[in-house]
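Can't paste images in this forum, so I'm doing it all in text. The chain is below; anyone willing to post the predicted structure tokens underneath?
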Amino acid sequence: MAASNPYQRNVYALLMHIFGFVLLLEWVLPLEQVTDTANIYVFIVFLMVAFVLSFLQIIPLLSFFVQVGFMFYFLHVLYMPGVFLGKEWFSFLWQDLQYNFDVIWAADWSSMTGLFRSLLLFILLWLVSYLVIYWILYRKQMLLFVVFTVTYVAILDTFTVYQGNMAIVRLMVVGLLIVGFVHMERLKEKEGIYRSSKMLLSWGIPLTIFVLFSATVGYLSPKAAPIWPDPVPFLTSFGEGNGVGTGGVKKIGYGENDSRLGGPFIPDDSVVFQAEVTQRHYWRVETKDIYTGKGWNSTDADPIPLEGNNNTVISWLEEGVSTTPLTANLQMEKTYPHLSYPLGFTSVETEEETIFEIDPVTEKISTKNLEEDSINLEEYQVNYNYPRYYIEALKSAVPGTGLESEDEFLERYTQLPNSMPERVRELAVDITNSYSNRYDKVTAVERYFRNNGFSYNTTDVAVPSGQEDYVDQFLFETQQGYCDNFSTAMIALLRAVDIPARWVKGYTEGEFIDSTEESKRIFEITNNNAHSWVEVYYPEVGWVTYEPTSGFSNPYSFIYEATEGNTGNNSEEQIPEQAETPEQGESLTPEPGEEENAEEVGASKTQANTFDLQLSMKEIFISISAFIALFLLVFFTQNKWKPYVYIARFKRRRDDKVFGKAYNILLKHFHTNGLIREEGQTLREYAKYIDNFYRGNEMQTLTSHYERVLYRGDSSEEEWEKSVELWENLIKRASS
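Text version of the structure:
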């Protein structure tokens, strides 16, 4: 934050730093409840360090390195492998930054890594902490930021699970105190009072008593009932009932009939169930395999009982996939004769005597009693294996192996209707033909929607009529819709290039509402969370979840095995690759049929990713942008770094011209900072004005030495020898 600041380290400055810290704390604390941010304490500690360094007025360069050190150490503790600042550490950081810059370039914001998001949050907090101190101690204007903070907390309290009652009370107390003390400082400056410590007490004590008394009375007083109705139901139901679309097709929550897709999705916040989980994931109900051109149907199959409530029928993941065994407890509010379960389901537990049957095609798990009549369970526990998808395994998947070697499997999951327009197939080829492995092809299709103007819309959603195809209409005409449009279109594009994919229905993870003592989270799933997504088959891996819908993020992560330290002695060679663009795909990926040694391939990819000297247009654009940003940074911070250049230039000089040049540069810096010398004002009068502003006498002493040289003809070298330290201190202050 800043050193060489003109404010003094007194009680007022200490109070303002404390109040500023409390204000920013109210911005940070809700993040743990309204976002996926964890370990919130590291950001609080970082803020504390920033404010302490600001109050102590540490040298700017030292303060910078201290805060950068804290920031990267916290990132190391949370995310990064190896020894802090070691070779592996820097390699991991470089690869992560490369990947995220590619993600930003593709505007795929939801794919940014947790490390990069945390880094951005650290930088944001760093900048805002500096601005808060600047507004309080320099501009002496803080009311607007207090209003913004109260508004921010009020919005979170209204529209999220965050309870901001006590936060509002704290903000009103701290906000009124800040505004009061800042107003006192403005009055002191206006009246020319610079050295009155009594005024702080005579003003501050009554103000503090009055604010605390008012807050206490307001908090303890009885509260009237709300005059206005709760705005949330009105806002969330706005537009409900508009018969948008054609053919009268509408969708509310989860439904079984998907033969005709399209039409609006009607909002409904009715709770379906609550889930106590460890990891966020989607809740599967069923899959469908036959795309008709208008919607989805499924192949008929006889259900198979789950013996001992254990799943020995369906396997989504191959044996080599790394998984973590987890459990989830579901409390149903709306009951159905089927289960909602995560990918990797292994068994189910319930207190009721229940027969569970699974359809081997749709993978829907039905519930029946001992008389084989359908029953609706109110509470049950599902056990499952949570997968960890390694990008190396996905990229090395060989088409035509595994289940794909079976004609029936390949035909079922690459099926498309004969009526499918040819331009859909041509588009699929255009998107994927620059890539040589399945992972890159699928990722390219997933990103296609986010990079080509497709928008999420639940109301104005067309329904294909006549011979129109649902996917063709979405891809080439409307380019707007909700999950059904995006997921079905992605599957059609993948199947058009012979990549097995299927349509999955169920619910998203829902809305976080609470945490348990066992470090589990409770989510509430409503009809609004009804969702559809895509699963793609990879040989040697299994079925992998993809999320093409704009505004939604995949609950499962794709990571490089090397980042987990599982690469042994070859960890340096198997550095993760950055996400490839179509242009990069040809140069970084071996062509089919090339017989290269695996280690040589890894080394060449590492070299290409880390020190690729073949500059593309994107790299040139980034380089130019970085140069412009650097130029602007240097230009707008010149008042910060120029004094140190002048100090290095003049401090050791001993000639008859140095004093005059140095003194005039000092006057120029005061003028730049708004301390303007009025017309007709003598140097002595101006020096007195400067000393009154900075509460010292250094400028008058320096001016006295300068006037001896200017008017009496004293030795410039001798007077500069006496004055150089005064000049150095003043020019540092002028740069603040």
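The chain has three domains: 11-220, 272-562, 637-734. The longest strand covers residues 379-390.
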